[in-house]
Amino acid sequence: MNYRLTELKVLLFLLLLSAVSCQRPMYDEEDEEDGVSQTNLPLKISARSSGESQINYPAYIYAFAENGSCSASLKMTDNGPIEMKLPPARYTIVAIAGLGEEYTVPENPCLDDVIVMKENNSSSRALMLGTSTVTITNKKNISVSVTLYYAVSLVNVSLADIPSNVKKVSLQISPLYSSLSFTREYSGKDKSTEIACELESDGTWSAPPFYIFPGSGSQTVFSITLEDDSQTKTFGYTFNGKPEANVPLNIGGSYSGDVTVGGSLISGEWKDPVDVKFDFGGAGEDNSGDENPPANPDLSGLPEIGNIWNGGIVAGIENASPTGADVLLMSLDEWGGLASDVRNIIKEEEANGWYLPSEEEAKVLHDTFCGVSLDELNETIEGLQNGDPLLDIEKRYVYDFNGVIYAFGFKTSSKFLQAGSTVKYKIRLVRSVHYNAG
């Protein structure tokens, strides 16, 4: 009898031990990896917004390992710092705020996964996202601060002088992106959103403020539809620009036989204002914005992409008109150093008009010179026989993102991420030079 009692006690103990082992906390003090015990170390994380913008809590914090897998995640309910415990390694920290039922987020995300707007490619919530990198070592008191920026554009619509017999008014915007990765890369291009406007007490038609991802094309089509009891009319305009993240888009207009719409792109706190005014819907017009010059006029003598011109590598052609164009040049010279040293390294070059590329310019460099184009460019540089360094597909090059140093590579799948503090990067500068036709 005592033997059976002892056997029962041992069985109960084993069951209890098994239950406890299945209830391990998210962060253990030690993890076994390849037979080696690793001590998890505390990482303090704080989040802030750029300028005076307010973070719409809760914010969700993710720590991604170098292979892109999610090592840990936490929910931040206020602006107080939180703490994660992670094994020593290099991590990409991603903070996201403004999520709600209108956005779909993977339950166990990887760094390349995307956040999607569920319906109509618009949302009533402003999505904010920020990234940072940190290397956890055996040092104590490691901390990282993540700055969140708006990843969407705020749109306001107000239309006046609409005829009293009109029953419905709507606005359509296209093409747009519909998703955003944790690395801040947009995808799901050529989508559209259509917003219904409501009649206000003052006779104007407006829509509640809403948010969209940036435009996916170099041009944007705005369409306004007016519907009464007998017919439906749609008036459109092709705008030579696109909605951008962190830039409110205010659309206002009036109807007087034809539709005249005045639109403006007004920047947020981190960019200079850009105002755009246009008319559309006039009788006999094709609604394509012909008052603007052709986007790519035939300019004889205009330097070609990848050629050497005016002391630099031609990387892009912008603002082309019959009289000339702005040429984006990338430097033939190349520098290297830690992210913290970049400003001092390029100080002398800035005085000569060269500067760190912005994120938009960095993406132009990447899109222009990845793959076969990079090989062709390096052949051109070698042909100069000046000893100029070739672009290295295995290295990462820095750019400026709102005053913070970020980096990218010339691989097709390159990520655009904040630069690490202990990594040496390559530096290629840019400048814009105007080409005069004739």
Automatic annotation (TrEMBL):
Task: Cite the residue spans of the region called Disordered.
Answer: 279-300
Is Coiled coil there in the keyword field? no
One Gene Ontology cellular component: cell outer membrane
Per its UniProt entry, which superkingdom is the organism in? Bacteria
Keywords from UniProt, A to Z, are: Cell outer membrane, Lipoprotein, Membrane, Palmitate, Signal
- Classification via PROSITE patterns: PROKAR_LIPOPROTEIN
Q: Taking the first listed entry, what is the main subcellular location of this protein, grouped into a coarse class?
A: membrane
Q: Where in the cell is it found?
A: Cell outer membrane
UniProt keyword Transit peptide, yes or no? no
Q: Where is the signal peptide?
A: 1-23
Family recorded in the similarity comment: Belongs to the bacteroidetes fimbrillin superfamily. FimB/Mfa2 family.
Could you identify this protein by its name? Answer: FimB/Mfa2 family fimbrial subunit
- Native organism: Phocaeicola sartorii
